[in-house]
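tool=predict chain=A
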Amino acid sequence: MALILIRGENKSKLLSAISDMERHGNLTLSSKPKVISAEFADSLVEQILKSKLRTKSNVATAFFVNEDTTLSILKIKQIHPPAHIVVVSPEYKGHDELKEKLTIAHDMKGYHSYRALNAGKIDYSVKGKKRYIQNDKLNSYMD
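tool=predict ok
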């Protein structure tokens, strides 16, 4: 599991970056995005990059993805999100501090995964029960 930190100008850009990671990077979120202090995110990124940032962020979020750190970095390099995405590896000093902050942080409002929540179409012909019809073509993007 990799820990992802996203910082940006506004919440809509963060949400767009998360959806880009899911759709185009094929990364799977294992936790909901949590709201992180923008000042803490900026200082952590400066610590990781070992240089001053040109612009400060207004909002930040962090979450875990199922993929490992190396694969996450490679997939994020392929997309061009509207916010600054950093994969925080366990070898960085701020990793444990960020992980602690995630345990007490609030969920980011407005995030909804685009992936299907059920196994397929619902068959309403069965009275009193919902029966899901397995359709591999419908959920082919899940593989």
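The beta strands are 2-8, 34-36, 59-65, 84-88, 120-123, 131-134. The radius of gyration is 18 Å.
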